[in-house]
């Protein structure tokens, strides 16, 4: 089997739990891990006659997300009922948005190993989450459970579903899209996007087509994967499965599939339902969401700077590379740390020292991120400054000072003094040293003056030895040539 000759096509559907205080259509508080059925009321339990009331904060967060994704915000959008039966859905319908979502269109650019991909955003719509089945007894699996209960605490949680165009071309790019989206949504305060707790869940629609073809192949839908790694592995396995079928002369059926991370296997679950199976119809108990342009502008002006905008600003104003900017904006804490150091030291050096030296030293020791470590931005800037003005050599800075800084958090000047690492900046001392070395090595001096330029390196080496590495080698080289009359 070979992947050559096939192009992967991937589109994502992402559910994020909105960071509101209460549920989508009732006043029940949101939470995670509370005792079963302690956060319920007649509305979210689907009692007859109980009426939904829309959560205004959820609408605000949806607008903020739409703006961050470059979507247009509908001036009027409505809810629909999506009808189906399941024990975790007491009303036997989910209130969702259908053909009039709150946000449509937009673009979101991601950098992956295969370059920058601009991913089209189809839409983002509001809906409520279902409740949760809890299987009690052996291992929490349905097959060996003694009994199953419905926990309605999660029922009615506000969700935003974001749907992308089928613009992604690799499993790695899909995972990277989700990482960047997570970063952006966290930054906006829209969601904590915690995958393990299910506040961010992704379905991947996957197909392949002959390279060069512009038609879409039949897709399958990989459901509900709860880590970036599993998403990447699952898509990779599903692409292999589809290519295997096509190579064997078989056809792809439009199905829902599941990836088992334990075995790496893909299981086919069911043939997918069509939209008309759900008998969508407009929700009669809610009025339309009307968003005045002025209200949208108000949300826009309240948005923090987005990671993509910050990256561009760093490149332009601080002169650091796209790669450095991408790594250093991986988390809000790290980004703030870098900005703090860069305001006190040379930004390019700061990017380099934080991204490479500091992070790798921390990885080997305390396993912290820079902003969580004992190395405050002030100390880091101090260290970078000493290296930049040559009061401290880069080697001792990296090998002696940095590890001790991570351990103690002491002022860098204290460590340098304690370890007697300060570079010799006294010019007179350097001249005296060179003169002494010339006196002690008249033969080498004669060679140097006779035109053997590389003997200068011999004197620099002697000077470094004599000072325990505390002389600035480049400066010593200059003095050697000057004193030799060259
Ligand atoms: P459905 O009607 O099955 O829900 P949609 O057209 O609404 O399909 O698309 C749902 C998701 O599937 C979107 O993210 C879209 O980008 C993606 N998608 C659609 N067609 C394909 C395809 N052939 N291959 C991969 N992804 C696709
Ligand atoms: Zn409730
Ligand atoms: Mg659809």
Number of helices: 15
Residue share in β-strands: 15-25%
Mean pLDDT comes to 92
Bound molecules: adenosine-5'-diphosphate, zinc ion, magnesium ion
The level of helicity is 25-40%
Poorly predicted ranges (pLDDT <50, ≥5 residues)?
none
Shape: elongated
SS content category: alpha+beta
The number of distinct structural domains comes to: 3
User: Over the alpha carbons, how many angstroms does the gyration radius reach?
Assistant: 31 Å
- Biggest sheet character: 10 strands, mixed
Distance between the termini: 69 Å
Number of β-strand runs: 17
Task: Please give a handful of descriptors for the protein shown.
single chain, 486 residues, alpha+beta, Arc Repressor Mutant, subunit A, ten-stranded mixed beta sheet, 15 helices, binds adenosine-5'-diphosphate, binds zinc ion, binds magnesium ion
Give a brief description.
The chain has 486 residues and is α+β, with helices and mostly antiparallel strands. The chain is built from 15 helices and 17 strands.
Tell me what the structure shows.
The chain is α+β, with helices and mostly antiparallel strands and 486 residues long. 39% of the residues lie in helices and 20% in strands. The protein folds into three domains: 3-298, no CATH class; 305-418, no CATH class; 427-483, Arc Repressor Mutant, subunit A, CATH 1.10.10. The protein has helices at 56-68, 171-188, 228-247, 293-302, 307-318, 322-328, 332-342, 347-364, 377-388, 394-408, 412-418, 427-440, 442-449, 455-467, 473-483, and strands at residues 6-17, 72-73, 76-77, 80-83, 93-96, 103-104, 107-112, 115-128, 132-136, 147-151, 158-164, 200-210, 220-225, 255-260, 265-271, 281-282, 289-290. Helix 3 (228-247) links the parallel strand 13 (220-225) and strand 14 (255-260). The chain is elongated. It starts with 5 loop residues before the first strand and ends with a helix. 35% of the residues are buried. The structure holds adenosine-5'-diphosphate, zinc ion (ZN) and magnesium ion. The site of zinc ion has 8 residues, from loops.
